[in-house]
Amino acid sequence: MSTDGGLHVGVFVFDEAEELDVVGPFEVLSAWAEHSAIKPHVSTFSHDGAGVRLAHGLRLVPSRSADDVGPLHVLVYPGGWGTRTLAADPAHLEWLRQIRAQTPVIASVCTGALVLAAAGLLGGRPATTHRDHYDDLAEIDPSVVIDTEARFVDDGDVVTSAGISAGIDMALHLVARLESPDVARAVRRELQYDPDPPV
């Protein structure tokens, strides 16, 4: 938890999370902390505080465990192959429902939306996920209104993004929403994020 009582953002990490789903939003939100008048505190955490091995082999040691991360204002929930296990884990889904009850904003990246849906957090709501997994999302919860065009969908207390790099766009949107578009633009300039694909 932030020692100054300020806004606290937690990025949940787990085995086989997609690397860019984790580090893209983390980079944006950490840069935000440097530009922000409200000085958000951004940290990573795993269930037990132990290190995790991400989908392509990158190993990451989080700052905290779920028990000591403290109250969050924003939870970032990445996607990746590890979501298959978590979406089928009743204890994890119950933990996620409990976190949801006390966290103002939950933001998923990519297939993180599948776990949110499995926990019953997307019922009847607009949402998106990786384009290869629209059918999976619909199968988990047919009531989800899937947006197949948007890079991210902001439904107030739940924000979902499309695949992988879309998490960067979503994180910049969160900066603009939680502080200001000017600060979000300053973060984007610092990161030199100005997509213009060469192919």
TrEMBL record:
Residues 9-176 form the DJ-1/PfpI domain. It comes from the Bacteria. Gene3D superfamilies: 3.40.50.880. Pfam families: DJ-1_PfpI. This is ThiJ/PfpI domain-containing protein.
